[in-house]
User: What shape does this take?
Amino acid sequence: MKSAYKIFIIIFLLGFTSNSFGYHPDEKKPGDDKKGKGKAKDDTTSHKIEISENIDCEEEGMETESISFPSNDLYASWDTTMAHPYNFNEIFKLDSVEIDFINPGENYFVMPFKGNKTSEFGWRKRRPHYGTDIDLETGDTVRAAFDGMIRIAKVAYGYGNCIIIRHNNGLETVYGHLSRMDVEVGKIVKAGDVIGLGGNTGRSTGSHLHWEIRYAGQALDANDLVDFNTGCLKDNCFVLKKTDVANKYDLRALKNRHRKDVGLTKAELAYAKKVGGKIYKVKSGDTLSAIAKRHHTTVSSLCKKNKIRENSILRLGQLLKI
Ligand SMILES: [Zn+2]
Assistant: This one.
């Protein structure tokens, strides 16, 4: 430890959300105060935990420092039960936010595991894949990407053994399919600290690390922040724009918009699902070559898939398998 001070860290645990914790019968539920009294000063839904941490003391005197949970100004709750309790659109009111990655003299970022990428952020087998998969062997050490505090350390859905760290820069990182978890909720970690071992738990075929970077619950494409070849951050800061969320990161919204753009009816959608793959609905002015070009395929491939000839006349509204 670098610090020569004895630091007492006092942590205020505020604002549990109603959906994350059950209420004791003697606790108020949100809204009980609605009838004109305003917020009670003695809020029974707020909890306070004091943790004192002894860091070597070489100098005389003590300093008392108060810190809250990492990025508590951004997140309304510190939820240790749900992996993703946040609603990005409720939290993110700005057009953009700058996330700074500068911490002179210390490791700011450490690659959780240096291995080959085996799957990217995006749609995969009709499921949104919110992380980047990194190849590893069961038992390989997995490290915290940034400084932060452990928010989740438990089995969580398809993630299997899952650790989620809230960081001081506003980001949260998710580590899935672990074979062992070496940290507990509330533990403060530094970038590069070992948090567990890689594995194959949860919905996983073959040992790998499923790694996500999220901001206010919204998963981001790690490739936009991290150079996987060098294992370093791409820049000293990252600007997250609301337009990028709409155009790149919000996978479900993108898929719905694509369906609308393509203009498929419900019945046509069902047909598309049945035949599998992509379906295109012919619009006015379309030609086979233009459709092929737009979808990065060839006219002969389109003809073969749809049992038509190259000089076939396309009908408006005709469905083509791409
Ligand atoms: Zn994955």
